[in-house]
Write a structure and sequence with these properties.
Layout: H1 2-31, H2 38-47, E1 61-65, H3 76-90, E2 94-98, H4 106-109, E3 114-118, E4 121-122, H5 128-139, E5 143-147, E6 152-153, H6 158-164, E7 178-183, E8 199-202, E9 219-224, E10 244-251, E11 254-259, H7 271-285, H8 300-323, H9 332-343, H10 348-362, H11 368-381, H12 387-393, H13 397-409, H14 413-424, H15 431-440, H16 447-450, H17 459-472, H18 475-487, H19 494-509, H20 513-524, H21 530-540, H22 548-556, H23 561-571, H24 577-586, H25 592-605, H26 611-617, H27 623-636, H28 642-651, H29 654-666, H30 672-680, H31 685-698, H32 704-710, H33 716-729, H34 735-744, H35 748-762, H36 768-776, H37 787-796, H38 802-811, H39 817-828, H40 836-845, H41 849-863, H42 872-882, H43 886-896, H44 904-908, H45 918-928, E12 934-937, E13 956-962, E14 966-984, E15 995-1001, E16 1012-1015, E17 1020-1037, E18 1041-1048, E19 1050-1055
Parallel strand pairs: 1-2, 1-3, 3-5, 4-6, 5-11
Antiparallel strand pairs: 7-8, 7-9, 9-10, 10-11, 12-14, 13-18, 14-17, 14-19, 15-16, 15-17
Helix pairs in contact: 1-3, 8-10, 9-11, 10-11, 11-13, 12-13, 12-14, 13-15, 14-15, 15-17, 17-19, 18-19, 19-20, 20-21, 21-22, 21-23, 22-23, 23-25, 25-27, 26-27, 27-29, 28-29, 28-31, 29-31, 30-31, 31-33, 32-33, 33-35, 34-35, 34-37, 35-37, 36-38, 37-39, 38-39, 39-41, 40-41, 40-42, 41-42, 41-43, 42-43, ...
């Protein structure tokens, strides 16, 4: 016995030591996986399957081929080592990793049982003998495994696509997208890793060309769940919505397994995906036998059988996993089962099955998170069968809360009984929780059991009991609550009051307003607290009790402000004009503090029967009451209130004036505007101003004729207000009338408003030529040099019309300095570069410094306008020559700093020696050295600037295979002779444009015909553009390349 025991221990230790040694070297191998981050290596190591699905029939060798001639996935090193280490750990196979095409010679392939194409891209080799050897290898009885980009290669070798099962046709879902995968064949042996459940994953998802992919040839295992995945994606091409993810097939005597997952590093530490890979590899190696009848050839019975068996697998395995579930480890698991349980709620057999499974889960000593999942869902499906288990849990502190949570929502009557028994028990666990649950269940039988807790010394128990009894309601509960409320200390009364209000609400909900009114009336009585009385009177207002109005008025007579405010709020909700009439009748009998509050309530009620009482209150000696009444007329007033409000607005100040103005604007009724117009003529100036202001603020467009008449008033302040209203209301066809008023206006105050009005009306006119003619026609009425002439010029400056510009240019030659300056400033703000040269001439020749300064500033502004298509250097050279001071040169340098034309550096460089402007010159040079293109494209706009970030490792891409119509646009920010554009896509060697057309433009709108057409033939595409003067360059991709995106890693533009 002793000897045998010793032998066992030694043998066991030897095996354990061997196991540790294997893992030691495995860890070293993983950590050296081309410098992969240690944390990623560790995650892969932790996710590797522990065992192979089946023991290999013989030692197996797997060739893992990783060569890329197109896009190179960063995940290849980690993926290759994961595949290699998975074989080593499970003993399923030994892997050899290679990117040397010579491994496909017949002699080399003979040593292997299967080939794994891991993220291979492009035309990997052209040697037909190697291709034949590869195909013969698979056809002759060996295996082929494809991971992710294994369908993105050998497009020119059609047999490869046939053998693998499909060719890549873009990835509408990128590496950052999370999608949902569905199991097409849930019970299939190669889908065992997923335990019958679909799953979410973040990875790049492929679509496949219509040929050779076909369910007539492939047994599709997993595909995209289009009902749960975002299908609002560009580049979707499959009208059948068939987005397969993995499949298996026979090819000759050989076996093929493909899975499109594997772009992201994270895929290689997904345990289920790794197990799926391993099962597929074992199938390809010949060790795991599975049915590969093409999906399209399966009978409906076979399909249904797989679904049915998969559903059973999902339930059995899923509930096992739920017992071990921990929050944060597998978010999809509880989500899927929650959806499943909810979907089965209308099916009694399913409900009973879920109840049994969830109860069993509770009895299986689950994790805390697993138990909480069970009780949460027992609330939905539990019947009498689960109550005994939950009742037992109620008596254990660590599980009582979960059990109570489940019982609380159960429709079964036994749930209430279990909760009552737990509350009755000696050493009750969580009395407060039990009381809460009984209250939520509205359990009438528990009232006598809960009521004693109202007297508990524990305030929390008291509050819980009160809340529960309020929810339960009924005479016994209400009586117990009133008794407690009357005897409670003020600081302890809150829960009883809230509970009674809840009970009253319950009465209302049951259609018992009279019984609810009894509760509210008792609460409103003077022997209760202020809070109770306010709650009572506000509750009464909802019951339509005939006692409500008197209760509100009685409460309003109290001196306590909170009582008054509470009663005034209640007054808003009592229905009917009779209540309004009673409130209005009693208004002047209330304390003044209550009068103001009730007036506000009457305004909110909006009943016109209160207008008389409220109007009388305006004359109250109490300022607060008067102000409330003025404000209330906004809601209650009518045309008869116009004069009174206008008088108040014109003759008072502060809050009263503000309130009167607001009420005058907000008065309702079809005849209010007419009443305002009628009142204008007889009112004194201050009141006339308020009436005109109101017309503008009310949007009374029909009053424009009256406003034009008021604009001729003898009082300048009235005219100014009339102009302001015209600016708000006058239509475009009144421009002539408004400008004529401006031309003759002599008051400086009124003229400023008249000019604003003219500009406002001008903005509504869509015909610049007609507008210019209208404004110019007013000039003869104005004497040269007077301020009105300058106003007319400023209006002309806002009309983009040649005649207006000519008039302004002529004005620059007049004798009056103010007129000349006004004209120059208007020209300087011209919307186009039309007067640019005129402004330069003025900057060069004007005698007055202010005129020169304004002209130079306007000239520089126009040089920067987009419609200025002339060479920049000569224009800025002219600006420097026109400069007469260091400040002028600084202005020119600041403008240059906002440009992008590198040729301007030649102009700026000498100024670094100018002591007065050298700092500004240095800053301008620094700005010019920055290449700052504006980019746009038909696709991939989120990655545009990766094409010019100076990092060859980043790229812009179409995100879909090349096809005609894709374009990339460059805005250089200045017009220049473009010599050449270079597109460098070395980082994605196969993503160069197959064919292209080049267009140029000065404004980004007018492109014309293509100036050049060409063909790309390598990673760097250089496009010469001799003698093409432009600001914008657009390259349109016109070719097609199956499986290849159009990418730009680095973009260079050469200009003369």
């Amino acid at each position: 016995m002793t000897g045998n025991s010793t032998y066992w221990r030694v043998a066991h230790l030897r095996r354990y030591a061997s196991f540790l040694l294997v893992w030691f070297f495995l860890a070293i191998a993983l950590q050296s996986a081309n410098g992969q981050p240690p944390e990623e290596v560790a995650r892969v190591e932790a996710a590797l399957p522990a065992l192979a699905r089946v023991a290999p029939a013989a030692p197996r060798k797997l060739l893992v081929f990783t060569l890329c001639k197109g896009f190179v996935h960063s995940s290849i090193p980690l993926g290759a080592k994961a595949v290699e280490s998975m074989g080593a750990k499970t003993g399923a196979y030994a892997a050899t990793i290679s990117d040397d095409p010579s491994v496909f010679t017949p002699e080399s392939l003979a040593q292997f049982d299967a080939v794994c194409m891991l993220n291979t891209t492009g035309e990997l080799f052209d040697d037909d003998a190697l291709k034949k050897s590869f195909a013969d290898f698979v056809r002759g009885g060996k295996g082929l495994v494809g991971i992710h980009a294994a369908t993105d290669c050998f497009y020119k070798w059609s047999e490869y696509g046939e053998m693998m099962g499909g060719y890549f046709d873009g990835h509408p879902w990128g590496a950052g997208d999370t999608v949902t995968c569905a199991l097409d064949d849930p019970a299939h042996g190669l889908n065992a890793a997923f335990k019958g459940r679909g799953f979410d994953i973040t990875d790049e998802i492929y679509q496949f060309q219509s040929k050779p992919y076909s369910r007539e040839k492939l047994r599709v295992l997993v595909s995209l769940d289009i009902a749960k995945t975002n299908m609002n994606k560009d580049g979707l091409k499959r009208a059948d919505n068939d987005y397969a993810i993995s499949w298996a097939r026979a090819y000759g005597q050989g076996r093929v397994f493909y899975c499109s997952l594997g772009h992201n590093e994270s895929t290689y530490w997904n345990p289920a995906v790794l197990q799926h890979y391993l099962d597929g590899i074992q199938f390809a190696l010949g060790d795991l036998a599975v049915d590969v009848t093409p999906s399209a050839a399966l009978t409906p019975e076979q399909v249904e059988q797989s679904k049915s068996a998969g559903a059973q697998i999902m339930l059995d395995e899923g509930f096992k996993d739920l017992a071990r579930y921990e929050l944060g480890r597998d978010a999809a698991l509880p989500k899927q089962f929650s959806e499943l349980i909810i979907a089965g709620l209308g099916d009694e057999p399913k409900r009973a099955d879920f109840e049994k499974r969830l109860t069993g889960l509770l009895e299986s000593n689950p994790t805390n998170d697993g138990r909480q999942f069970a009780v949460k869902h027992l609330r939905l499906v539990a019947g009498e069968a689960s109550i005994p288990v939950l009742a037992t849990m109620l008596r254990q502190a660590e599980t009582a809360n979960d059990a109570r949570y489940a019982l609380e929502a159960m429709p079964a009557a036994g749930a209430s009984a279990a909760l009552r028994e737990a509350l009755r028990a000696d050493g009750v666990v969580d009395a407060i929780g039990l009381i809460n649950s009984l209250g939520e269940r509205r359990d009438l039988e528990c009232v006598t059991l809960v009521a004693p807790y109202l007297k508990s010394v524990d305030a929390s128990e008291t509050a819980a009991a009160a809340v529960a009894l309020g929810k339960i309601g009924g005479e016994d509960a209400e009586k117990a609550l009133f008794t407690s409320l009357l005897t409670a200390r003020p600081e302890r009364a809150g829960p009883y009051l809230d509970a009674l209000l809840t009970a009253a609400d319950m009465r209302m909900a049951k259609g018992e307003p009279e019984r609810a009114a009894e509760i509210y009336e008792k609460l409103a009585a003077p022997d209760h607290s202020v809070r109770a009385r306010v709650a009572g009177v506000q509750g009464l207002a909802r019951t339509h009790s005939p006692k409500t109005v008197s209760a509100i008025l009685r409460t309003l007579t109290e001196s306590d402000e909170a009582l008054q405010r509470g009663a005034a709020l209640a007054a808003r909700y009592v229905a009917g004009p009779d209540a309004t009439r009673e409130f209005a009748t009693q208004l002047d009998k209330l304390p003044v503090s209550a009068q103001a509050l009730l007036i506000e309530a009457l305004a909110d009620r909006g009943d016109a029967v209160a207008l008389g009482a409220v109007t009388n209150a305006i004359s109250s000696s109490d300022a607060g009451v008067s102000l409330a009444a003025v404000s209330a007329l906004a809601a209650l007033g009518n045309a008869a209130s116009v004069v009174q409000l206008a008088e108040l607005a014109g003759k008072t100040e502060g809050c009263t004036q503000t309130a009167a103005r607001a009420s005058l604007v907000r008065l309702r009724g079809p005849d209010v505007n007419n009443a305002i117009v009628a009142a204008v003529e007889k009112a004194e100036p201050a009141v006339r101003r308020e009436l005109l202001r109101a017309l503008g603020d009310r949007g009374a467009k029909e009053s424009v004729p009256a406003l034009l008449l008021a604009a001729k008033d003898s009082d300048e302040t009235v005219r100014a207000q009339a102009y302001a209203a015209l600016g708000q209301l006058a239509p475009a066809d009144q421009l002539k009338a408004v400008v004529e008023l401006l031309a003759v206006e002599q008051s400086e105050t009124a003229r400023a408003e008249s000019e604003k009005a003219a500009l406002a009306v001008l903005a509504r006119n869509s015909d610049p030529a007609a507008s210019a003619a209208t404004v110019l026609s007013a000039l003869p009425d104005v004497k040269q040099g007077i301020p009105a002439y300058c106003s007319i010029l400023r209006v002309l400056g806002k009309i983009n019309d040649p005649t207006a510009m000519e008039a302004l240019l002529s004005a620059t030659e007049l004798k009056n300095a103010d007129v000349r300056m006004t004209a120059v400033r208007a020209l300087a703000e011209w919307p186009t570069a039309g007067p640019k040269e005129n402004l330069l001439a003025l900057a060069q020749s004007a005698e007055e410094a202010p005129l020169r300064d304004a002209s130079l500033r306007g000239y520089l502004r126009m040089v920067e306008l987009p419609d200025n298509v002339e060479e920049l250097s000569p224009q800025y050279d002219a600006a420097f020559k026109a400069s007469r001071s260091a400040e002028d040169r600084k202005l020119v340098l600041a403008s240059i700093g906002r440009q992008h034309d590198p040729k301007l550096m030649e102009l700026v460089a000498p100024l670094q020696e100018d002591a007065e402007v050298k700092q500004e010159a240095a800053l301008a040079l620094e700005q010019l050295k920055k290449v700052s293109y504006a980019l746009n494209a038909s696709r991939g706009n989120g990655d545009l600037y990766k094409a010019i970030d100076g990092d060859p490792a980043t790229r812009w891409s179409t995100g879909e295979p090349q096809q005609p119509g894709q374009w990339f646009q460059i805005d250089m920010g200045y017009i220049a002779n473009v010599r050449k554009v270079a597109l460098d896509t070395t980082g994605s060697a196969g993503d160069y444009p197959r064919e292209y057309s080049v267009f140029v433009s000065n404004d980004g709108k007018s492109w014309g015909d293509a100036v050049l057409k060409g063909t790309g033939n390598g990673p760097v595409t250089e496009i010469p553009l001799p003698h093409q003067r432009a600001r914008f360059v657009k390259i349109e991709q016109t070719g097609k390349a199956d499986g290849m995106f159009w990418s730009i890693h680095e973009l260079k533009v050469e200009v003369e």
